[in-house]
Amino acid sequence: MTTPQTPARHVEVAGAGFAGLTVSTALAQRGWSVRLHEQNEDVRDFGAGILLWRNAMLALEVIGVAEAIRDNGVRPHYYETNLDGVSVSAELPGYPYWAITRPKLHSLLAGAARAAGVEIVTGSRAVGADPAGELLLEDGSRLTADLVIGADGAGSAVRSSLGNPVQERKKYSDGVCRVLIPRPEEFRGERWDRVVDFWTLKPDAMRILFIATGPETLYLGMMAETSNERASRIPIDVEVWSERFPHLAPIIELAGKAEGGRHDSYQTTRVAPWSAGRAVLVGDSAHSMCPALGQGASVGIVNAVDLAHALDQYDDIGEALAAWEQRERRMTDDAQARSAHMAETRTLAKGNGFTPQLLETANFVSAAVSPELAARYPVPEANRSW
After folding, report:
1. Domains (ranges, CATH) in the chain?
2. Structure pTM?
């Protein structure tokens, strides 16, 4: 006599960004039936570059993507801060974090999702969710599941449909233009495999975050106050940026020719709770944060892997969601608060800003990560708060 097998639990996921792909892969690898909905006709990312900190790399080890990121990205030798053309600090030597282009990261995550058996449906827009366990689509479909996940970004339709979660929103005076450019010859080689944070604060704050993302590409995060309309334009206004950073004129010229750039204003959205019944939020839909700390994507990836892990530990989905949020909430709230403080004070411009306390988010270890796995990414003693 054959013992009947318990049917696989089923999840409907809205949003094929970093968090949506990560949680879909992690659940599929644990035996869930997963259907992932992407509103666009293609599964791809339109961004420029990204830093993945130790917390994210450990989480990505769990789903088997970290090695490909190490192979395709760049480990910065250090993080240099330059104020008004003068180098004021060089931090994080030996710290385990990687830079990679966002399209490459997205491609690697999408490949892992498909390999795990995730069904990806494009041109499928979610407009809400029912806490009883239904994903609502724009075409009128109501898809029943054991769990519904809203990973549909900062403007989440799933979040807006879940009754009245407490939402605290704050906008800041700064914004950032993100572009990916060809790596000029003078910035090639291991010597330039680093992060350089160029600042000028007068007459108003402007910043160019220079990150090598591979042998052929550089990512530029060009921050300015949103009231500075010319510095907030896409395509990049070469004249206004070259006037403030004349020593970077060659790469600013390339930035002015870049295609696919985007401008985003700094903002934070704090949501509580992250779940209602059998519907849950993950990634920017739950905890968008301004990019001053560079942890938005990393925290979303960590929380996505930990969500899958928690669902593996409890038979009851409600208990799993409560335990997951209790574990992740403090780390996530701290990351949002730290990034907000950095945006408001521009403290990184002074250099030597990566204190052990500030790095607590980057050093957070997912509950899904074994001690043996964590040991592969040792933290230099100077960067520890323990």
Report:
1. 10-44+102-170+269-383 (3.50.50.60)
2. 0.96
